[in-house]
Amino acid sequence: MPREAYQDDDDVALSMSPLIDCVFLLLIFFLVTTMLKKDLKNVEHLNLPISRSSLEVPPDDSVMAIAIDADGIIYVNGESATITELLDELRIVEQEDPDSRIRLDTDANTPFHRLVEVLDALSFRNLRNVGVRTYHEKYD
Amino acid sequence: MNSRTPLLIALLIALLLSSAFSLTLYFNENLRKTTFAMIEEVKNENGEIVKRVKVEKPRPNREQVREIARNQEIKKRENLKENARKMRNIVGELEEAAEARRRSLESPDAWDMMAARAAKLKLASGTAQYYLGKNRFLGSQPGLRHATATLVNRSEHHADHVRVLSFMEEVPADAARIALDQGRQFAEQALEVQQSMQSCYTEVQQRQQSREQKKLESYIKQRFQESVDLNDQAQAYWKDLEDLVMNKALPDSVQVANGLPPPGEESPDQVAAPTPLPTEEEIEAMDAAELYQSLQAMTERMDEAFAQNQAAELAQFKHLPLKQAREEIYAPKSDTGPDLDDQLAQNLPETPEQFQAFNEALSQAVQAADRMRRQAESRRNQAFNQAENNKSEQAQAAQLNRALQKGGELKARMAMAAGNAGLPNGNVQDMRGLMQQNYGVSGQGGGGTLSGNAASGGFDGSGFGMSDFARNNPKQIKLGIRTVLAQALPGRRFDMKSKRKGWIFIDTWYIIGPWELPRANSFDHHFPPETLVDLGASYAGKIHPWKKKPMQLRWHFVQSESLRINPPDELSGSVYYAYTEVFCESAMDVVVAVASDDRAKLWINDLVVFQDEGLSGWRLDEGFRRILLKPGYNKLLVRLENGPAVTYFSVLMCPFEALEK
User: Fold this and answer.
1) What ipTM was predicted for this assembly?
2) Residues contacting A51, CB < 8 A, separation 6+
3) Taking the CA of residue B542 as centre, how many other CA atoms within 13 Å lie in the half-sphere pointing to its CB?
């Protein structure tokens, strides 16, 4: 006659090990899935102007980031570029996808004429899906 | 109680706890932002003490670090290889074209020699006119002034005409006769100038001999001697031209230095056989550091090949010695990226810090390589003014040579048709045929898509300077200047469906200057933007009148509400350049009006379209050019020259259809 597996176990106790295992597994699951990705197109030394009316936009890798720093230097996707390079880049964007999203990051002290120059280049290349990035303490 | 119950309870509790924890995190933002960690105090870059989370990672050992480094290198090496391959092709193409151009300079035919002499006579005539304007007595002699102005006009027309002939494989008889006729008129005019100068000299000699008069006499004597020399050269030139046209041969005595040594002698410019470009196997075998070095070397070589190419083209176009052309053109220097030799050589790092330095160097190398490749592509497009798909067709040397020759001829024809010297106000020159052929020969540079109809079209060698667009082609346009001034709208994009019809003035420009205005024959002196428009570049310009230092020139973005564009840093005796682009939805037949105070030259898609003469005031109807704009972006470059006082320019465009209505 076969013996029942737990018949002789008189001292039944709650084992904590599987519990802790489960909790750790769940914790690791959340840690892994909520890993944040660094924005490679971001220009670190920009002091973005503060705005309370800005909207949160979900992050998007396909967005083209154009930044202008306080010295008027232009960055395309995080790399410094001349205005000729920017115009060439925008021409390619226009040919490939004229509706693609473009993000404009400017410093609070960026010369305004430089911003106008870049906006004019975008308008001339018929790129209309342009957003300006600002600092909002709730989102950043 | 079932024996499995404890397990089930454990599972239930675990699920309850974790779901409660998840829900709390989901609904409570503050808790989500809270971090449970060890906090340490560290000094930041400003020396302030800040608190931050202490992160302890296990330190990887040597083997692990090397493994990571190797993987990173393999990943990034592929990118470097791809860039190196592209760069090798571009350098090869540029060097091949430069060599083809140089070879064609080595064997000048009789017409090349005549074109070189005509160009020299043109320069001498221009110089004579300059000295005339410098002296009050000579400038006040209406007969002499008129004779010299006619001489300059004739010499320019003749030199342009002979230049076109020099590019032809077979010179048509009627075109040669026109050249001969022009040559005769030029020689007669040179004689007339000499006679006028002689009478001026006699008049001065007969005056009272004061100290000032003696000075004037010696000045005029010098000018008279120059006019005698010019006349002698013009007569000799005409005789030789007659011999060439009538007997199809040049006398043996005629020799023109073309700057290249006789065969067998080594040119001082010519470097020893260049080292071969890396082969496919070599590129495949290189590591990251070697690839980066090779890319840097190829970029330097590409710059040199580009400069050689531009110099050879200029030498061919203006019949200059190659060496002189090389000195005249601006040789742009490409950015070869940071020096990363030491960092990239550390490809076997031992500590995480060394790996970090190596990885950073790799990323920088990849970025720099991308930039170098992009620069090389834009230089290649500039040099050939052609799309990538023409490469394979032109691979063969003979074809390449023919295409270059053809391109040269079309450019020479354009330059001839662009001149506004001696033409009345409101004149219209039709350049569509030449532009159409040029777009056809060179494919197309820049952006946009070129539809088939703009690229096709036969070439008719006999229609000299004239296109086959004879129908509905006015020779003169009368412009209601006030109406245009009131109604012209700003813009840079042409759209056939647009409701805005009529004159559009180009309102947005990038302007650079001032450079010092050359004394005589100013358009023959080239400044950097004529070789390459780089809106990020800066150059040393004119000496500032008060600071006595060369001005540092940069491109300025200028957007004007008015039709007339004023350059920033406006100074007298200066040269400025203005660059912009115009967009067309489809190929368009457009009338362009360039007006300037004082002189202007306009290039559209690297083709000369308009060239003004003299220190004229701003007039909207100085001259009209009927041109073809290709679909997509069209590049416009204006050279503006200021004599004394103020300077401004305007470029207006109107689709021909709209003008008709």
Assistant:
1) 0.74
2) A134, A135, A136
3) 20
As a dihedral over the C-alpha atoms of residue B12, residue B14, residue B20, residue B26, rounded to 10 degrees, the angle is -130
With contact defined as beta carbons under 8 Å apart, do B116 and B510 qualify?
no
Task: Please report the pLDDT score of residue B450 as a whole number.
Answer: 32
Residue type, B536: G
Closest CA to B465 of B151, B172, B125, B54: B172
- Rounded to whole angstroms, how far apart are CA atoms B291 and B289? 5
Distance CA(B630)–CA(B587), nearest Å, equals 4
How close A63 gets to chain B, by Cα (Å)?
19
- Beta carbons of B303 and B332 less than 8 angstroms apart: yes
Instruction: Enter the DSSP assignment of B38.
Output: -
pLDDT digits (tens, 9 = 90+) for B400-414: 777 777 788 888 888
Supply the Cα-derived Rg of chain B in whole angstroms. 33
As a whole number of angstroms, the distance between CA B320 and CA A29 comes to 75
Token pair listed for A82: 């001349």
DSSP code at position B17: H
List Cα–Cα distances, B233 to B178, B191, B240, B264, in angstroms: 20, 11, 11, 31
CB B443 within 8 A of CB B419: no
Q: For the stretch B327-352, what's the b/e string if a residue is b when 16 or more beta carbons lie within 10 angstroms of its beta carbon?
A: ebbbbbebebbeebeebbeebebeee
- Strand B574-584 versus strand B632-642 pairing type: antiparallel
Residues B169 and B107: beta-carbon distance below 8 Å: no
Q: What share of chain A is helix, strand, coil (3-state, %, to 5)?
A: 30, 15, 55
Q: What is the pLDDT, as a whole number, of residue B442? A: 54
Separation in Å, CA B446 to CA A72, B95, B609:
26, 21, 18
Quick one: angle between helices B211-247 and B110-134, nearest 10? 160
Give the C-alpha separation, A131 to B386, whole Å: 35
Cβ pair B94, B383 in contact under 8 A:
yes
How many Å apart are CA B152 and CA B126, to the nearest integer? 6
Q: How far, in Å, are B56, B65, B73, B123, B633 from residue B350 at the CA level? A: 19, 6, 15, 68, 53
Is the separation of the CB atoms in B179 and B165 below 8 Å? yes
Q: Which residue of A has its CA nearest to B20?
A: A23
**Would you say the C-alpha torsion B442, B443, B449, B450 has a positive or negative sign?**
positive
Distances in Å between the Cα of A81 and the Cα atoms of A70, B380, B534, B537, B582 are: 15, 19, 12, 12, 22
Are the beta carbons of B557 and A117 separated by less than 8 Å? yes
Specify the amino acid at residue B227.
Answer: S
Which pairs from B73-76 meet CB under 8 Å and 24+ separation? B73/B287, B73/B288, B73/B347, B73/B362, B76/B288, B76/B362, B76/B363, B76/B365, B76/B366
Ranges of residues in chain B whose predicted pLDDT is under 70: 1, 33-38, 53, 55-57, 248-274, 385-397, 441-471, 499-500, 661
B559 and A5 in contact by Cβ < 8 A? no
> Which three-class secondary structure string do you get for B295-345?
HHHHHHHHHHHHHHHHHHHHHHHHCCCHHHHHHHCCCCCCCCCCCCHHHHH
Counting beta carbons within 10 angstroms of the beta carbon of residue B49, is it exposed (0 to 12), middle (13 to 18) or buried (19 or more)?
exposed
Among A12, A22, A140, which would you mutate to test the B interface (most chain B Cβ atoms within 10 Å of its Cβ)?
A22
Q: Which of B3, B374, B536 sits opposite A83 (nearest CB)?
A: B536
Instruction: Decide if B6 and A13 are in contact by the 8 Å CB cutoff.
Output: yes
Tell me the pTM.
0.78
Rounded Cα–Cα distance for residues A129 and A101 (Å): 5
Question: How close does chain A come to B541, measured CA to CA in Å?
Answer: 20
The C-alpha of B17 sits at a distance from chain A's nearest C-alpha, in angstroms, of: 8
Give the whole-angstrom CA distance, residue B623 versus residue B605.
Answer: 19
* Omega within 30 of 0 (cis) for the link into B514: yes
Helix axes B352-384, A83-96, angle to 10 degrees: 80
Q: For residue B564, what are the contacts with CB-CB under 8 A and spacing of at least 6? A: B618, B648, B649, B650
